[in-house]
Structures are given as structure tokens and as C-alpha cells.
Design goal:
This protein has 3 helices and 10 strands; from the N terminus they run ββββββββββααα. The protein is α+β, with helices and mostly antiparallel strands.
């Protein structure tokens, strides 16, 4: 692919994605970051959300969680805690995680263990973003 950019999404468990692409959008902590071939060297913090890329003229995407991205020598490496293609996302599990997080956030702090609101909010956000990615790229689930 002329003018292509290599995209690698890496988690502690595996290399989730290794493709040639013409453009990538990553969820940065300060907003959406667009990357094209020949991008300047860069390191950025990655937030929870959908990572989108164009492969063979078609827009595709996956879920990524917290991590960092590095652009160097026409290669974008996204190293994150979790990365899941739409076909790998378990919708039932994501909905159950959302329900648990909402329940934890709704508990009163008195009596028993105090609720860690930040952890509950982060869990809720991850669950909602997984469902969002499924909604955006449901056609990829059907083909896979």
C-alpha cells in the first residue's frame, strides 16, 4: 500500500492488530488524535474508547483502554491495557459489567466497605465504550 502507515495494537496478552492503514484515529486523554502516513514522531496518552482506522478503503475499529501511543518511522504502536476487536467483545458480559458498576456507584458509603467511586466510574466507562464499539462496528461482528 503506497503511503501506508503500520498500525500495531499491543496488550499485555497479545498483539491485537498489525495492519497497514491509510489513517488512524485514537482516543487521546485530551481528545481524538488523527494519524496519517509520514506523521511526525510523537508519544501520547491513550484513553478508553474506539480506535478507528481505514484499511482497504473501509473504516474499521476496535475498543482500546488506557495506555500510550507512539508514532515513529511510519509505525503507530498503541500499547494499552485492553484491546478488543468487535468480534471479540462479549455484549452480555459488557452489559453485566455496566450493571455491576452502576450498582456499586449507587451504594451508600455507610456500613461495610466504602465504594471506590473512581474505580466504579472507570469500570462503567469501559463497559459503555465496549458497547459503543459494538454499535459502531456491528457489521464486522456479522462478517467475522
Amino acid at each position: 500500500m503506497a503511503g501506508a502507515l503500520t498500525l500495531r495494537v499491543i496488550t499485555p496478552d497479545k498483539i491485537v492488530l498489525d495492519v497497514q492503514t491509510s489513517s488512524v484515529k485514537i482516543p487521546g486523554v485530551d481528545g481524538l488524535i488523527g494519524i496519517l502516513p509520514r506523521h511526525a514522531h510523537m508519544v501520547a496518552a491513550v484513553d478508553v474508547g474506539p480506535l478507528t482506522y481505514v484499511e482497504g478503503g473501509a473504516e474499521k475499529g476496535l475498543f482500546v483502554s488506557e495506555g500510550f501511543a507512539e508514532v515513529r518511522n511510519n509505525t503507530l504502536r498503541v500499547v494499552c491495557e485492553a484491546g478488543e476487536l468487535p468480534a471479540e467483545i462479549d455484549e452480555k458480559r459488557a452489559k453485566e459489567a455496566e450493571k455491576r458498576a452502576r450498582e456499586r456507584m449507587g451504594r451508600p458509603k455507610s456500613g461495610g466497605e466504602p465504594v471506590d467511586v473512581l474505580r466504579a466510574e472507570a469500570a462503567l466507562r469501559r463497559a459503555l465504550m465496549r458497547q459503543h464499539v459494538l454499535g459502531l462496528y456491528a457489521r464486522e461482528r456479522v462478517r467475522s
